[in-house]
Design a protein that fits this description.
The two termini are 34 Å apart. By secondary structure, this protein is an alpha/beta fold. It has a domain of 161 residues: Alpha-Beta Barrel (TIM Barrel). Helices cover 29% and strands 20% of the residues. Helix 6 links the parallel strand 6 and strand 7. The chain has an eight-stranded mixed beta sheet with strand order 1-2-3-4-5-6-7-8.
């Protein structure tokens, strides 16, 4: 496990909690719009601080923070993730886990042990051949359906989120909506081009925020839980 970044305070990453956000290097996808593309290859990502140094710092935050968001990269790739989550929980913090949903068996083990209190899972694209286009890797969408089923049967709070990059139009969003349950919380996140954006997406436009708001209103007929992030 390599910690590639630490945001020591966030009021928005963990709903209704004051938290810190930990970024673990390494991902099994290569989404062209990802703002953390520099940490996809864990072997090349610089280490922000050792795990023990993070835990030492976290001990000083007891009674000051409510929780820790564990993000990435893709945290479930780390073989020692359960040990980290046990240590965080042992200090009395709630854990929010961000995941791309590609490792349902790992997630199942974490949930069965009670190591996550809240899960945020990405739905990158409609669950068909478009998934591999957006994620930049060969991808079997049925794996995402498996993780969705796992979260639905878990009983704990979770959210779904989609970054609306240049590959997604309103028709694609409608196709995603038909995979979801009416009561599920689904956040649409506006695309923001950065210096990290892939060459394939460079210079391409995505839906503007006004168009996204209009899409949200349309999608609510199918998925009333859809929201535009930040609103």
């Amino acid at each position: 496990m390599k910690i590639a970044g630490l945001q020591r305070l966030t009021l928005i990453d963990y709903p209704d909690r004051i938290a810190a956000t930990l970024f673990l290097a390494g991902c099994n996808l290569d989404c062209g719009y990802c703002y953390n593309r520099w940490m996809i290859d864990a072997s090349r990502a610089p280490e922000a601080l050792p795990v023990e140094a993070f835990l030492d710092w976290l001990r000083t935050r007891v009674s000051k923070l409510d929780g820790v968001c564990v993000s990435g990269g893709e945290p479930t790739l780390a073989a020692d993730l359960p040990d980290l989550l046990r240590a965080i929980k042992g200090l009395g913090f709630a854990v929010k886990l961000d995941t791309n949903g590609t490792r349902p068996e790992v997630l199942r083990a974490l949930l069965d042990e009670g190591l996550a209190d809240y899960v945020a899972m990405d739905i990158k694209a409609p669950l068909d051949g478009r998934y591999a286009v957006v994620t930049g890797r060969p991808m079997e969408p049925q794996i995402i359906r498996c993780t969705l089923a796992l979260l639905r049967g878990w009983g704990g709070p979770y959210e779904l989120r989609t970054t609306v990059g240049p590959d997604l139009d309103r028709a694609a969003l409608r196709d995603i909506a038909h995979e979801l349950l009416p009561e599920e919380r689904w956040y649409l996140q506006p695309y923001m081009a950065t210096a990290e954006v892939s060459e394939r997406l460079a210079g391409r436009a995505a839906l503007a925020e006004d168009a996204l708001r209009a899409a949200v209103e349309e999608l609510r007929a199918v998925t009333p839980g859809v929201r535009l992030r930040g609103e």
